[in-house]
Amino acid sequence: MPTNLIVGYDGSPAANAAINAGAQLFPSAHAWIAHIWTPPFTSKRLRRRLRAAAESADDLAELIEREGAREADNIVGAGVALAKAAEWDAEPVVKRTIGSDGLRLAQLAERLHTDVVVVGDRGLGRTEAVIGSVSDMVVHYSTVPVLVVPNPLLTEEYAALAHGPVVVGYDGSAAAEAATDTARRLFPDRKVILAAVRDDDRDVVAGPATEGLEMLTVDETNWFGRARDRAIADELIAVGDRSDAAVLVVGSRGRSPAREVLLGSVAVATVHRSHRPVLVVHS
């Protein structure tokens, strides 16, 4: 059965890269290409033209809504075309929102019963910062696994997407068990490697989800002045690099009904620091 996923798409190079990478990881998937827009959406140049044409403030608001909706349809259409060229069964979904685009995308993922949310780590305009508002909020609030695709990927990192192994951060917790189960379900034909970071020289106790999997135990190297979660994330990333991994998988312990990721956690540190795609799984 093909994977059912949703892609947050804003027309940016990072969003295009997310589709291309996602198609390598999930070939022949069914994909909702989702564009979330917030008025006033249209470009400054277009708004100047609309101000000149409008007879009143209400008229201007109506024109901006109309042109913004048309521009949103054009953007999502380009995303669908790219997804179909990548051999996905793609459909558009456009939603107007006021507030967090990322929260709205997370809600859509739940309502459409998707297996994965795919987002790029950079966008245009309001999402320009590294790990911008949309991708950050999706990771924070989604109950569906979230794949964050960094941009750009180096040649060898992109080549690994098609057949590379999956590296799962593992510590024996319920979150790590959920991450392992999800990795095996989403990537049934790939090698899954568990990267276990020892805490105070104590070995990690393997749970039932790890049966038959290779486990690599690495020692935590906590440099002076570096937070422990970053140190662990760097060890996981290093295992991914040595294994030429297609994707890193991390579990996250939610702390609220919305299953918000704990800021500063290993999961968030891995998303922020990895140059390879990272799949965050909420337990």
TrEMBL record:
Entries under Pfam families matching the protein: Usp
Occurrences of domain UspA (ranges): 3-150, 166-282
The family this protein is said to belong to: Belongs to the universal stress protein A family.
Name this polypeptide is given: UspA domain protein
UniProt superkingdom: Bacteria
